[in-house]
Amino acid sequence: MPISLSPQAMVKAPSLLYKKRWGRWRESVIKGLMFLCAGISVITTFLIIAILLKESFGFFAEVSFSEFLFGTQWTPLFEPRSFGVLPLVNGTMLIVVGSALFALPTGLLSAIYISEYASGRVRGIVKPVLEILAGIPTVVYGYFALTFITPVIRQVYPEANVFNAMSAGLVVGIMILPMVVSLSDNALRSVPAALRHGGYALGATQLEVTTRIVVPASLSGIVASYILALSRAIGETMAVTLAAGSTPRITLNPMESIQTMTAYVVQVSLGDTPAGTIEYKSIFAVALLLFVITLVMNMIAHKVLEKFREVYD
């Protein structure tokens, strides 16, 4: 039996078809724009890698790879030239260790308080205030280290240099603190409430539940936050350039002036070094090494996060 449509339905049918086609076209355009944005990100990444490799190959054509990685003297701008990158790596690691000693325990304890102990009102105030630290320009942190942290350090240790690794490490620790707090808080809050209730049902106190159940259950997420924060500390530029100085040396004394890999890149990139020279190409070799280090750390963090998601998704 044929289906008859009312006059109102016959009028609405073309408009519904038009809206459906318009919706599909709009969805296709949005998908295309998102694909374009993703493609731009990927292409940009590959172009950066290609430029680093191209210029680094020119550098390693004149300097041996073993001399670069294992040399203990870094004087590419002075005669006699030496291209051992270990002093820069030592300075970078000194900053990373100093920032980790401050930011990792402080960030974890702050995250535990915000997640497990703070009321909703306190959490709504404390966490946004901590995250404001992430929006402060790094050059401001550098001047803060020079004008506040360094004078305090020199009052306690008069032998400390004006530019020193401890001041730079502390200010970088302050910079990465919001990342540790935010990611660790998310990891702690993602632990199922049933685990907490089970601990309380067995007679455990809140401290015991936190330290013996919640923190171990969220350990993979906490470790991932540590790795991401430290990779951020490795790549910090302006704060360490201003606070740590520009003296490449191998030392474990945090009171001495040092130079990091990023600080050297800034020093040579100011425009005084002619393009195409071995000194100019050295910044790409240093940048490539820095890229490899941060890439490895981020890959480790993502592997840990994958394990974390598999457990709690």
Quick structural gist:
The protein has a single domain (69-312), classed as MetI-like fold (Orthogonal Bundle). A two-stranded antiparallel sheet has the order 1-2.
Task: Describe the overall structure.
The chain is mainly alpha-helical. It has one domain (69-312): MetI-like (MetI-like fold, Orthogonal Bundle). The protein contains 12 helices and 2 strands, in the order H-H-E-E-H-H-H-H-H-H-H-H-H-H. It has helices at 7-60, 65-70, 86-117, 120-132, 138-156, 165-189, 193-201, 206-217, 219-234, 238-244, 261-268, 278-312; strands spanning 74-75, 82-83. It has a two-stranded antiparallel ribbon with strand order 1-2. Strand 1 and strand 2 (82-83) form a beta hairpin. Helix 11 packs across helix 12. It starts with 6 loop residues before the first helix and ends with a helix. The model has no long low-confidence stretch (mean pLDDT 84).
